[in-house]
Design brief:
heterodimer, A: mainly beta, seven-stranded mixed sheet, 11 strands, globular, B: Immunoglobulin-like, four-stranded antiparallel sheet, 12 strands
Chain lengths: 114, 113
């Protein structure tokens, strides 16, 4: 099976702009989670989607939003970008059913805000 | 509440010597525990997992971990380090509502020739 894919891999944006990141999960996986990774804060959980519904959410401002489509692909949007949003954004997928706990991560999208 | 503490932010070993990366967890539920590895500018790769079966878990690349409930620990070990093991390692606990993941702060492993 193909792994988790994320596009784009690298992105440079300016403060105040918005950005959309995309994640395609492993085939058959219905859960997609998003994480932000920075040197200072480490790995922080943003949100999880399962069957097009957000079922877990981290402590991020409303500028961070996401959605999931019927084919389980997910997008994450960040509006009004700030310098502190520069990070590696990781997407992870899992089957989402009882007994299947492990997540599989994509390579990440490196976002730089200038 | 769930939490993970990785006791060392940096570990340095010589190639061919044993590796020990320490992880303690706290969980209100019966947890699942994982170790992930992240090489520079890459995503996270699953090394091994514990999900209430055997307490000694074997993973990829010669790594293993032992779940010790009495000590609330899940330390990662490898008998002989290889240069390619240099990376950052994350201990993760999953428990509670919808098995939310809780990450440790990471341990950077340096392997000296």
């Amino acid at each position: 099976k193909a792994g988790v894919t994320q596009t784009p891999r690298y992105l440079i944006k300016t403060r105040g702009q918005q950005v959309t990141l995309s994640c395609s999960p492993i085939s058959g996986h219905r859960s997609v989670s998003w994480y932000q990774q920075t040197p200072g804060q480490g790995l922080q959980f943003l949100f999880e989607y399962f069957s097009e519904t957000q079922r877990n959410k981290g402590n991020f401002p409303g500028r961070f939003s996401g959605r999931q489509f019927s084919n389980s692909r997910s997008e994450m949007n960040v509006s009004t970008l700030e310098l502190g949003d520069s990070a590696l954004y990781l997407c992870a997928s899992r089957e989402g059913k009882a007994g299947s706990y492990e997540q599989y991560f994509g390579p990440g999208t490196r976002l730089t805000v200038t | 509440a769930q939490s993970v503490t990785q006791l060392d932010s940096h570990v340095s070993v010589s190639e061919g010597t044993p590796v020990l990366l320490r992880c303690n967890y706290s969980s209100s539920y019966s947890p699942s525990l994982f170790w992930y590895v992240q090489h520079p500018n890459k995503g996270l790769q699953l090394l091994l997992k514990y999900t209430s079966a055997a307490t000694l878990v074997k993973g990829i690349n010669g790594f293993e971990a032992e779940f010790k409930k009495s000590e609330t620990s899940f330390h990662l070990t490898k008998p002989s380090a290889h240069m390619s093991d240099a990376a950052e390692y994350f201990c993760v606990v999953s428990a509670g509502n919808f098995n939310k993941f809780y990450f440790g702060s990471g341990t950077k492993l340096n392997v000296k020739p």
